[in-house]
């Protein structure tokens, strides 16, 4: 008996680590190490002697926090943040609003063609971002657009045109998340509400939306992270117009720094700054809404 | 996030390299393995080279070499062209797994050299020096003792124009840029939907070529320091000229190579394109309706009687600094053959549609490109442009300068502000980038 007991305890100690190992190894190799390497790169810079041509004239040296100081004091980075903030605001409000509206409409009892509508709203999400950007680009260009008379790519409209691409592509996915959550709500709640004489609109506003809150918050956090990382739309639309600079969004700036200017070090520092800010934004948002969303359950 | 991904790749590469070292170490003491790999005098295994290029049909040309040289086997890896290809090569070099052979546009070669990513071929490539004009050879030596590649093609600039529409609007082929401006206004007076040309804020290469024609020298070497003079007198003249034309609405400001631009070319809404010798391929693909209606003439000059042109594009083939001595020797032999052997150059012209850098190669061109089949003297025109084209030394951060060009001129067009100001922004950004990267810049 005692020996069996001991063996079980021994196995018990090792087993959790064994089960954790695959996830831990993957986490360390593909997330923790790259992040550590990025942080290391962000504290380095190159030093050149003379013309910087020929063997041995380039050395990598320690830069301390210089790259961070440069990133934080770079006016173009903050301009790009402001741009992305406005862009994010438009996308978040319109995309999530539309997604919620569509989900609620599809969930009402008398809806027709539910399956068809659901698929057609979801379909744009299946179109790759680059293809969507190019397709909209053709629709926006004055020479190829069927909508004459509007300049979609002028300095004052380009941000909205870009937000439109994101909204078009993202609404379907968010709608599906919300719709799935709606389907999980027990029907009895609706019956009770109907018996009390509530209309469909009232049920939607006072029963469905409060229950949906956690799902709405989840989609909001995902969308905040996605808009902070906006990259595809400006990259695809940039060659088509004069109005999108290379540092349009924080990520296009990082890309330009790393792969066009060839300065991996300052790009790494900016990347860490951007990661920090998106962390603050998404966790800040979660903290603000935590009580409303998860108040009852905790 | 991109950086993270790159870092992940680097970490993975390091891990694999470490694993490789670990695996090979135990075999070293075993004497049995040694003689087998090193004893035979003739290399038992052929040298295998990977070649990054975006020239069309290069695999067909390489096959001719591979069939004749069983011990130096080249594999073509097709790349996207332009700035992306340069960025990709620099990243691969930094990550430690670059290809042995790479197509390098002349303006990017200095950044490859500055990153210590390409090998000095002065010993191996010396015999082919005489095959190229002095100007082109300078582009692969950067004015130093080293030789960092073998020239493949060049892009002397000419003025392409619509013969039929010039007749319709009563325009003579402009001899000077003043004539060109007058013609631009004349077109606008007759038809509000048509432009003589457009200024592209997306194509610094084209602007660089026009500045070379005017005598600009953006970078130069002064002792142990770089000099940057992007807003020199000649370039300022070019920028002012185009800025004025755009400002008064005499020419359009849509960028080249956009769907809109293709449509304008195809519909006859754009009458000229100051472009390089490779333009026929672009026109053929984008304006198929206008076949036989375009013609090439020398670029308009800054003053009557002058005769100068510039370069837009063109590239060399370089060898990676990471190549082993065997690979380097094989690579040098291959690129010397590819760019100077008469048979190979013929294939480059026929299959890859390039304007060869080799002097003999250009002399062998007779039949005009299909799209220009009505212009019998097309290649004579090209040869004249090549002979009169001025080049300049490219600096080690052309990518940064070109990005600054796009951003600054985009902004100038959007805000209707002066091109001189945009040029100053480009100059300042280029100098700042060089200083940040640790280059010595003379003031």
TrEMBL record, chain A:
Domain called ABC transmembrane type-1: residue spans: 81-285
InterPro entries reported for this sequence: MetI-like, MetI-like_sf, UgpAE/MalFG_permease
Cellular component terms per the entry's GO annotation: plasma membrane
The keyword Membrane is annotated on this UniProt entry: yes
PROSITE patterns: ABC_TM1 (PS50928)
Keywords, sorted A to Z: Cell membrane, Membrane, Sugar transport, Transmembrane, Transmembrane helix, Transport
Principal localisation: membrane
One GO term (biological process): transmembrane transport
Family per record: Belongs to the binding-protein-dependent transport system permease family.
PANTHER family linked to this entry: BLL4140 PROTEIN, DIACETYLCHITOBIOSE UPTAKE SYSTEM PERMEASE PROTEIN DASB
UniProt protein name: Multiple sugar transport system permease protein
Species in which this protein is naturally found: Nonomuraea soli
UniProtKB/TrEMBL annotation, chain B:
Pfam families: SBP_bac_1
SUPFAM superfamilies: Periplasmic binding protein-like II (SSF53850)
Transmembrane parts of this sequence: none
Domain of life: Bacteria
Keywords: Cell membrane, Lipoprotein, Membrane, Palmitate, Signal, Sugar transport, Transport
Signal peptide stretch: 1-23
Classification via PANTHER family: ARABINOSE-BINDING PROTEIN-RELATED, POLYGALACTURONAN_RHAMNOGALACTURONAN-BINDING PROTEIN YTCQ
Name of the protein in question: Multiple sugar transport system substrate-binding protein
Natural source organism: Nonomuraea soli
